Amino acid sequence: MVVLGSTGSIGVNTLSVAKRFGLHVQALVAGSNVTLLNEQIKIFHPSIVCVGDKSLVKSVNHPHVLYGNEGIIEILETTPSQLVLNALVGFLGLAPSIKTLALGKKLALANKESLVVAGALLDKKNIVPVDSEHFGLWYLQNTRKIHKMTIMASGGAFRDTPLSELASQSVADALKHPNWSMGKKITIDSATMTNKLFELLEARWLFDVTNLDALIEPRSLIHAMIEFADGCSTLQMANADMKLPIAYALLGRIDELVLPHVDLVDIGSFAFKKIESNRYPIWEIKDDLLANPQRGVVVNAANEVAIELFLAGKCNILELVALTKKAFKKFEDVNPTSLQEIFDIDAEVRKYCKNPQ
Questions:
Q1: DSSP run (H or E) holding 291
Q2: Number of structural domains found in the chain
């Protein structure tokens, strides 16, 4: 397989699964963590690798090193592997997703943004989601009629922060996720609940279901629930470890223990909470976005710019979300009908968010 984003948390877990099940890794694509990439090269012996910038090429211990977006596309076009794991972060991951699907290859997708911004235009039949929530929804499905799908949220770093203190929280505070170890962007998205908004959009495109919601389950042990038309509900539960959904995405079926089972006696009890917009203001646009999923490109572009401002200390966490909501309102009429329009709208929204009027 080809692993895009090999040095991130999903990439590292993917390579752990590959090693356990003897999967051949043909290509590795990383950003700037050359030290870890070199360690991965020693273990997996890929035939080709790619890094984010030309200046890093000389530091990579491999005879065939490409760089940049063009390097990623070349790897997809030239390697015979029919399985691509896309764990790139942000809008950057869309072009590789488009190329993978155009080539008829299987796309194990951890790049949320691909579906968020272009779900209506991507061929979903070759997409397998790499996400605990969407894996849970897939795992629960059967032939019964579905009434509603619900995914679970941890609540993120500010789940228990007094509301009056939200605006004063630092970047370091936002990166203290209570349950998961992830990259900066997704951890901040978890703190604002934007990540869960994106996952609802993904579920909309993956499962063709419009009755969707999310709840906070602080332990991150229950990942998804389906309510069926007959009144029954089923929940998917597993320990918080991405190796399970990754293994299913890569192999299709697993008949051996990947994670230890959840001990219900040890857990004792579960608690569920509604996602409230006074703590997570992004939730105010949830219903509007799900009714107009084509506007996902606006939310994603605005959010990426806002996160850059937050990381640079130019706005607080509430102002981050306010900018996303302002752009969502400003570009309420967008309805892209082609992938080129997606890229054009993305650029226009980013320009606006850097100097909003």
A1: helix 286-291
A2: 1
Return the residue matching tokens 């211990």: 61
Contact 2, 75 (CB under 8 A): yes
Give the separation between CA 301 and CA 242, rounded to whole angstroms.
Answer: 26
Domain with 104 in it: what CATH number?
3.40.50.720
The answer as to whether 206 is a domain residue is no
Residue environment code for 293-328, b if the CB has 16+ CB neighbours within 10 A, otherwise e? bbbbbbbbbbbbbbbbbbbeeebbbeebbbbbbbbb
Domain that holds residue 124: 2-129
- Any idea which residue has 């984010």 for tokens? 52
- Are the beta carbons of 8 and 17 closer than 8 angstroms? no
Instruction: Supply angle C-alpha 2, 30, 43, rounded to 5.
Output: 65
Choose among 313, 335, 312, 326: nearest CA to 357. Answer: 326
From first to last of its 357 residues, the chain has per-residue pLDDT tens of 999 999 999 999 999 999 999 999 999 999 999 999 999 999 999 999 999 999 999 999 999 999 999 999 999 999 999 999 999 988 999 999 999 999 999 999 999 999 999 999 999 999 999 999 999 999 999 889 999 999 999 999 999 999 999 999 999 999 988 776 777 888 999 999 999 999 999 999 999 999 999 999 999 999 999 999 999 999 999 998 999 999 999 999 899 999 999 999 999 999 999 999 999 999 999 999 999 999 999 999 999 999 999 999 999 999 999 999 999 999 999 999 999 999 999 999 999 999 876
Residue 135 lies in a domain: no
- Residue 356 falls inside a structural domain: no
Residue 7 belongs to a domain: yes
**Distance from C-alpha of 154 to C-alpha of 268, rounded to nearest angstrom:** 18
